[in-house]
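dude i think i finally got it to work??
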Amino acid sequence: MKFKALLAIGVLCATAVPVFAQGTAGLPAEGVQSFQRDEDSWRRQNTSAKPVVSQSIIDSTSQTAIDNITGAEQVFCYQVQGKPSGYSGYTLDGMALTGFCGIVEKDLKDMIVQQFLATPENISADVERCVIQPRLLIRFVKGVDATDVLLSSPCHSFSIFYGGKVRTFNFKPASEIIDVMVDSFKGKTVDFTSPALLNQLLPIGVAQTAEQKEKVSQQKGPIRNWENETTAPASQPKKQGGWNNLKF
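look at this
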């Protein structure tokens, strides 16, 4: 079953094609990617069955947090990393936001829900002694509410952020799924700047018009100042506790 899930992710990412999202004043959002399968690939998987989210996940987060994921109207992908010392750039859930990796279409969203929330055998109850390494953050938006799902590797886990709380799950049994997603989205990531600065309604953070590009070029201060980070500390402080003790 794990192999089939991994293959499904590979097919989704391999057949992903760029499509245009609406930009400012109705202009197409150049460079923005929306990931969906080609027409023939629908024949390879039956998507009629609605995933049943594990009750243990609902109980440890909240029904509202899960409803935002399963009923999301838009899903966005962001590349994130631990926030360096002295960092003053863009952040998301306390992490440095380093890029935008696309608008996730329904078929891929459904696959994420199935594998992360509705496949109990993909989650281990063991408490691993490893440091969470933020890689991708998937934001599920419903109305004006949102739930964030953080993917970590090589400390394979996913964390659900909602209402100021976070719950982390050990995803080691299905670690390949996270690795494939991280590797596949990495090549699709584009630079991110503030959607508010660009007067964008969608939180894609990608300059789409000449006017927006000019505004970004005139921006004072670092937009992506994680690139100025000096060498990493020789050693990291010991992490106390297990999967719920996240320190970025």
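The two ends are 33 Å apart (CA to CA).
im so relieved honestly
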